[in-house]
Design brief:
40% of the residues lie in helices and 30% in strands. By secondary structure, it is of the alpha+beta class. It has a domain at 50-142.
């Protein structure tokens, strides 16, 4: 699967933080040179903490057109991965189980050293095409299209979070 890559940044605009998705082409650009150029343009990197990821998952859990496909953890813990994958699979047919999934992720974040690395999502758009995207802890985003509505929801959520 080919993903278009983006990086999340913020920039101050009229005393508020403006959230931006900046396109990144890893085939023609070195990641660290890209970051350095963005920083020189007065952009600041955004890291997606576990708290932000969990908040975003809670928001999209209410949107029936979006489903979690997979969660990757920083550490390879096969027992935790299996439990998360089971909850993800069950939540596809029973949206109420998102609560159990969120509770499990919160428990892992609060009570253990296991952290979320990347979360993959699928969204059915108006033309019933499935768009895939992922969000990563370092603020890197991969998407099959820039027009995925859930990415706009992420940017709006970050604006609210950063400007509280």
């Amino acid at each position: 699967m080919k993903y278009e890559k983006y990086k999340l940044f913020w920039k101050t605009n009229d005393c508020k933080k403006d959230i931006q998705l900046i396109s990144f082409d890893e085939e023609s650009q070195d990641y660290y040179s890209f970051i350095k150029k963005c920083i020189s343009d007065n952009l600041h990197q955004i890291s997606l903490t576990a708290e932000i990821m969990l908040g975003y998952i809670a928001i999209i859990s209410r949107v029936e057109s979006i489903a979690i496909e997979k969660i990757e953890l920083m550490e390879d813990d096969s027992e935790e991965n299996e439990e998360l994958n089971n909850l993800i699979e069950l939540s596809r047919t029973n949206r109420g189980l998102f609560v159990d999934l969120l509770n499990r992720l919160r428990y892992l974040e609060d009570e253990s050293s296991i952290e979320i690395k990347r979360v993959y999502f699928k969204e059915k758009t108006n033309n019933q095409k499935s768009e895939l995207f992922y969000i990563q802890v370092n603020g890197l985003i991969g998407s099959t299209s820039r027009e995925v509505p859930a990415l706009n929801r992420l940017v709006e959520y970050l604006k609210e979070t950063f400007n509280e």
